[in-house]
Amino acid sequence: MKRETLEAVVADLRAGRTPSLTPEDVPAFSEAATAGDPHIGPAALAAIAAALTEADIPTFERALRALDEGDLAWLGFKVVYDAAAAVGNVDNEVTKKYGEVGSADGESLVFFCNDAKLFHFSYQRYLENQIRSTFGLEGTPLRLTIRQKGEKEG
After folding, report:
1. How many structural domains does the chain have?
2. Which of these, 10, 29, 114, 119, has the minimum number of CB atoms within 10 Å of its CB?
């Protein structure tokens, strides 16, 4: 996205308006990029824009900061047209190997390590603070789950 588009999205969300996004603003939703996929296109982009809220402002502000710093700024939109299938998706290598916690269910962030007993609580707090700082999530509660390879949920 261009700087002007990101700034317009932030301004619209602050004013309580739905941002207006076009495939020109988000080329991944252009006709050429979505050819042959009946689930993705301008209508999906409009649905994503309509779903954005004030809570999404830090994400767009972080993208603006990344542009200012000369960093790459990636904004990812996951188009879910079957919510039950997305939450229940266990047919992928990560879920098969580590379980389903932290996938598409809105639960804890899951960190994996060699030995969870050696993962000190102060390092967990450090990671939480770094995540908040990096992604502009100051004041946002985070739940981290620390698991070691082979450990199952529960």
Report:
1. 2
2. 114
Q: Is residue 87 part of a domain?
A: no
Sequence-distant (6+) residues with CB within 8 A of 7 are 64
Confidence of residue 100 (pLDDT cuts 50, 70, 90): very low
Dist CA 20 CA 111 (whole Å): 36
Q: What is the pLDDT of residue 76?
A: 57
Q: How far apart are CA 93 and CA 86, in angstroms?
A: 15
Tell me whether residue 136 is in a domain: yes
DSSP letter at 77?
A: -
Confidence of residue 17 (pLDDT cuts 50, 70, 90): very high
CATH number of the CATH domain containing 120: 3.30.300.20
Structure token pair of residue 90: 């266990």
- Asked whether residue 7 falls in the same domain as residue 76, the answer is yes
Mean pLDDT value across the chain: 75
Amino acid at residue number 58: P
**Claim to verify: residue 110 and residue 68 sit in the same structural domain:** no
Task: Name, in order, each residue with C-beta under 8 angstroms of 43's C-beta and a sequence gap of 6 or more.
Answer: none
